[in-house]
């Protein structure tokens, strides 16, 4: 019997190994369509308000009703300053045990929508179907809100920016007046054009106002904490800030 050459055997073995790897790779699925939901995450299309490429428009918007095994779920959002300020379910499963599940789950889902500012919220334990329907309708509402947002005309944020000065708030140590710059539905700059001055007020103002300005930009609302040691200045700042926000449309 003729023996095969060692080099030939090595070549044949290598070819067989490569063929086996190629076959295994061709049988492996490209992706697991259920992996995102199984892990508790939202589908890739569920873009958050803060991280989305386009801001959401102000006003009230109602998402499409999502049909579940126990009834329809439909979510309505109130948006102000590009942020969700209120979420509510205008439709939810009802009757029998659904009443108890809905009364427990919906308030939590509403709160989660406002806190996360997106459709990526966790399901409530014991309310899987209601939670899934809520998230679906919530995402629909977010999509509609984005569609209603003013389109970028090419001028960038500067084209949409507006500067608004709130009414002067009178305090025990002098008036406080806040001016804000709003762009894309967000506060991008806050400054005090009036603040208590003279004597000890100079030191208090120089310490408190920069902190209040920073807090206003970070919070995007007038619901900011007072600066320790500057109670009156902080109260006046918040009052004037709220006035500026009202003038800017929320």
UniProtKB/TrEMBL annotation:
<protein>
    <submittedName>
        <fullName>FMN-binding protein</fullName>
    </submittedName>
</protein>
<feature type="domain" description="FMN-binding">
    <location>
        <begin position="69"/>
        <end position="145"/>
    </location>
</feature>
<feature type="compositionally biased region" description="Low complexity">
    <location>
        <begin position="32"/>
        <end position="48"/>
    </location>
</feature>
<dbReference type="InterPro" id="IPR007329">
    <property type="entry name" value="FMN-bd"/>
</dbReference>
<dbReference type="Pfam" id="PF04205">
    <property type="entry name" value="FMN_bind"/>
</dbReference>
<feature type="domain" description="FMN-binding">
    <location>
        <begin position="172"/>
        <end position="248"/>
    </location>
</feature>
<dbReference type="InterPro" id="IPR006311">
    <property type="entry name" value="TAT_signal"/>
</dbReference>
<feature type="region of interest" description="Disordered">
    <location>
        <begin position="32"/>
        <end position="62"/>
    </location>
</feature>
């Amino acid at each position: 019997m003729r023996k095969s050459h060692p080099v030939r055997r090595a070549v044949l073995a290598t070819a067989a190994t490569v063929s086996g790897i190629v076959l295994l790779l061709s049988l492996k699925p490209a992706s697991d369509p259920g992996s995102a939901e199984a892990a508790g995450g939202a589908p890739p299309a569920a873009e958050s308000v803060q991280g989305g490429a386009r801001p959401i428009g102000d006003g009230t918007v109602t998402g499409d009703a999502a049909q579940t095994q126990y009834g329809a779920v439909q979510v309505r959002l109130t948006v102000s300053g590009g942020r969700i300020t209120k979420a509510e379910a205008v439709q939810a499963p009802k009757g029998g045990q659904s009443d108890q599940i809905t009364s427990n789950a919906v308030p939590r889902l509403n709160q989660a929508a406002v806190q996360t500012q997106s459709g990526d919220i966790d399901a409530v334990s014991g309310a899987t179907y209601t939670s899934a329907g809520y998230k679906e309708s919530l995402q629909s509402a977010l999509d509609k809100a984005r569609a209603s947002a003013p389109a970028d005309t090419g001028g960038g944020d500067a084209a949409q920016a507006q500067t608004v000065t709130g009414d002067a708030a009178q305090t025990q140590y002098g008036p406080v007046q806040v001016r804000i710059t709003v762009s894309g539905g967000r506060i991008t700059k806050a400054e005090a054009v009036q603040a208590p001055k003279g004597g000890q007020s100079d030191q208090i103002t120089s310490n408190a106002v920069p902190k209040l300005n920073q807090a206003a930009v970070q919070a995007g609302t007038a619901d900011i904490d007072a600066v320790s040691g500057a109670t009156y200045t902080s109260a006046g700042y918040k009052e004037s800030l709220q006035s500026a926000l009202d003038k800017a449309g929320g």
